[in-house]
Amino acid sequence: MIPNLLRIEKHIDSPTEKFKVMKESQNQVAVDQIFKTKPHISVRNLNVYLTKNHILKNVSLDIPDKAITCIIGPSGCGKTTLLKTFNRLLQNSVDVKIEGEVLVDGVNIHGKDVEVENIRKKMGLLSQRPCPLPMSIFDNVAYGPRIHGTRNKRKLYEIVKNQLEAVGLWEEVKERLKAPAIRLSIGQQQRLCLARGLAVSPEIILGDEATSALDPIATTKIEQLFLSLKKEYSIVLVTHTLRQARRIADYVAFMYMGELIEFGSATEIFTNPKHQLTRDYIGGSFS
Amino acid sequence: MEEKIFKALMMAATMIIVVSLFMIIVAVVKRGLPAMSWDMVSKIPGGGFYIGKEGGLLNAIIGSLYIVIGSITLGLSFSLPIVLYINLYLPEKSRLAQFTRLSFDVLFGIPSIVYGAFGFTLMVYLGLRSSLFAGILTVTFLIVPILIRSIDEVVRRVPKEMMDAALSLGATRSEIIKPILRQVAPGIITAIILSVGRGIGDAASVLFTAGYTDSIPTSLSQPVATLPLAIFFQLSSPIVEVQDRAYAAALILTFIVLVLSLAGRYYSRKFSKNKI
Amino acid sequence: MNKIRYNNYRKIKELVLRNSMLFLTVISLSFAVIIGISLYYKSVPILDQQSLWSLLSGESWRPLKGEFGFYPFIMGTLWVTGIAILISLPLCLLSAIYLSEYAAPYIKKIVFPMVDVLAGIPPVVYGVWGILVVVPFISTTLAPHFVEFSTGYSVLAGAIVLAIMIIPLMISVFIEIFDALPGGLREASLSLGATNWQTIKKVVLRKSFPGLAAAVILALSRAFGETIAVLMVCGNVSEVPNSVFDPAYPLPALIANNYGEMMSIPMYDSALMLSALLLFVIILAFNAISRLVLIRIEKNFAL
After folding, report:
1. Cβ contact C127:C161 at 8 Å
2. Same domain, B202 and B258
3. pLDDT tens sequence across C20-67
4. ipTM, 2 decimals?
5. N-terminal to C-terminal alpha carbon distance within chain B
6. Second CATH level (architecture) for the domain A35-283
7. Same domain flag for B174 and B128
8. Could you say which residues from 222 to 241 on chain B have a Cβ atom under 8 Å away from some Cβ of chain C?
């Protein structure tokens, strides 16, 4: 029922499993057609429990490389939780239990020897409200490179300039790089946060309803940035607004009550959803 | 009807509380102001603090300053790591964090005389005499619970998204200490102001440990006078001039505390303005 | 190569910082235990000689003869703190209800900073106030109506000073408790046609009773331990007081007053440390109980 984008695993023996795999490999053909490249993040049978609530139920999903994937679904469906497992920000509470695997470039990030800092460095995070660090505009962008060992002032300046240019903020702030980041408008702050994330040269950008606090103009700016950034980065966005997903998504994952209901290319999901729930959600029967 | 009577009573009760504050300040100012003079704040007592009629309170003012600076420095270097550890490293709702908070809440309630007695035992055990160092140590015990409680209060309110933002850049937990401290700096200042107030005014803790002297200590092992002790000891003197010194010290102490509480208000308001 | 070394440096730095912070935290947790043990260790000599019960119930305090009866001091503490609570509880309760249920915002804006200032005034200044105002008032104005003679240095003087001192603590915890009550509770009662006052009496006070009790215990333990201010105004005569105009000698005052001579008389320091231990244990227990109650209340209301 759930279109599982599993690649065939070696350890499948039982007949029923084999049948499932057959079904899935039929699916796989379609997927291979829509995937131009290897998946960047692969989620395998992910279960997450918060206190005793089952937040994510056996989610398996492949996030394609160099494309925008939008995760949609009604609030409380587990979108944000899924996103946070990608860079292991979820484990910060005693009540969290995580089962299953999240593979980034083939490495299970919940494995024992994995250094969490390296995983997080690979992924830039944009949260719901922009969170500039309590320091100057320059220092915000330079924060990441600095902790990773770049001390050279000219180099830092280069990085900051490049990333601020990349998010279209350079012209607006080049006169006041030393000003506290908190003085920027909220839309500028969000672009600053994006630049800050890009400065550690990640491969993936995670956005958690990154435009929900912004006005329409700022939202458009951020969306256009995403569209131009997808040439170099894999982008995963959790979004509450269907219209945004329509505007920018290449792939769409629809979640409901902790389950992944449907995953496919944006055109497919929006024009011809396979599942009744997806149809209802996209048709606006619930939100 | 009943409501009206009680409302009148309530307003009366509030009035009594407000009035008693003014009574205290008025009493201290009325008695202390005539005793104030430039000598009072610029000279050390002459001819012995209990009988000498000459001189002023400089020994106690400087002594209090030394004690407060020393104990705040020492106290911060204990409390900051503890607060950061329970907020940064321990997961939310961790038992250890909750227990730590509870235990400092409880320690906050321990009276200063007990800290004084403990400090004294420790001092004897270590073979120290009553001295500036022992006084600093005891006052540190006294203020660490305040520092921890009030700094924890602000660090807890740091938006989780901000920590996540720094962590998601690949920072280790110890590397996000700097931005967090920057974020809560006004809160830390408020906490310091609060503990300076407590530390500078407390007599019972340093009664056993600081000793008392007419001179200004030049090393950590010399005894030291403080303002509250100056009040306490000199008030019981039969000589009016010596008593005057006590009342002047009370005035100075009250003034310091008033300024501190104004400053604390100012800073905490500034802090809440900057909160996102 | 450099990169690897830098990453190792980061890893080591993280490890060292993390563990030293954990170490400090654990040490700090054992702090209360260390205080308890060291005070106990100091009071062992006298406990070896006499039973705790005989010390607590003994009425005579003659250190030179080796008689250490704590009874007068315990009674002195109970008198002073009991009356202090009797004075400040109604004041605080009435005022807290007024401030949280009736008062206009501008009144709160005036009163709250004043309560803050009151909390910040050092004990010794309260003592000065007691000597300047309360003691003369009692000896010249109040006491002549009731007893033949009082110096003014009395249970009542100590209690009044102490009552004012614990007001900030009590009132701020009271207001916190009232504010923590879910607003829906009041609205539910009001919408049933109850008046404001009925709502306060039947709903607000009843619902917040455990919290108020905890706050009183907290204030009580603060009062128990208050030393200097009480010591300055309560007379310090080691006899059980018979009226509020008699002098009293509370336990903390006993410790503070005798530190000078305690090393020269055998068992004296042990007896004083025992009284410090008693204070410590009682106040620790009181504080722990009331804090636990308050934490539970906070949690329940938050849900």
Report:
1. yes
2. yes
3. 999 999 999 998 899 999 999 989 988 988 888 888 888 888 888 888
4. 0.91
5. 46
6. 3-Layer(aba) Sandwich (3.40)
7. yes
8. 228, 231-232, 235
